[in-house]
Design goal:
By secondary structure, the chain is mainly alpha-helical. The protein has two domains: 47 residues, no CATH class; 128 residues, no CATH class. It contains seven helices and three strands; from the N terminus they run E-E-E-H-H-H-H-H-H-H. Helix 6 packs across helix 7. The longest helix has 27 residues. Bound molecules: zinc ion. Zinc ion binds next to loops.
């Protein structure tokens, strides 16, 4: 089976850092102005990061009918989401401190998805649950695959999740993750920095 590359349809504005959905790749032409602030003439930033692209590409190349591949998908998807959460949290931390050392030390003290969302809530203008309130299904499915990922990490066999079918969850999360995280990213980008 030929490998399928994963290419995100999102690009980040080089000036105001808004993440834009660009399914027709119009923004690859630098003369096209961005819809956020009218930026033009500068290369648009690939979003999300290349490492997240790689994780999503790996999921894309796995066989949804193989139980082993489902387990690997759960691990890679969880890692991709945690990495996107971490990238967004860095942006938020840098709105509060210009010190990379301080940001680093705060990030190191908050490990794991739940603690990082708590950290997010403690410094963001709007809480994580408020920003994602229209995407409850994504959040619930994400919580369930996090639970499954932890079971896989502890060597347990796959168990059917409580509410959702895991194969459907993998598809759903894969298809909707960039929309979900771009909304959080843009909310953070719109918040004012406390210094400057
Ligand atoms: Zn812009």
């Amino acid at each position: 089976m030929p490998r399928k590359a994963f290419i995100s349809s999102y690009r980040q504005c080089p000036d105001c850092k808004t993440v834009l959905f660009d399914p027709k790749r119009e923004l690859s032409q630098l003369s096209v102005k961005t819809s956020c602030c009218g930026s033009f003439g500068k290369a648009r930033i690939i979003w999300p990061s290349i490492i997240v692209h790689k994780y999503l590409e790996l999921v894309n190349n796995l066989d949804p009918n193989s139980e082993d591949d489902q387990k690997i998908s759960v691990v890679f998807l969880s890692s991709a989401f945690e990495m996107m959460l971490e990238d967004i949290l860095w942006e938020l931390l840098f709105k509060h401190t210009p010190s990379p050392l301080l940001a680093d030390s705060i990030m190191d003290s908050f490990h794991g998805k739940e603690r990082r969302i708590k950290l997010f809530d403690s410094i963001s203008d709007n809480k994580f649950s408020e920003i994602t309130k229209d995407d409850k299904e994504f959040t619930e499915r994400w919580n369930e695959i996090t639970f499954l990922r932890n079971r896989v990490a502890h060597g347990d066999y796959f168990v059917s999740s409580k509410k959702y079918n895991e194969v459907e969850s993998i598809d759903y999360l894969y298809d909707n993750c960039l929309k979900y995280f771009s909304k959080i990213e843009n909310e953070v980008q719109s918040q004012k920095a406390f210094y400057k």
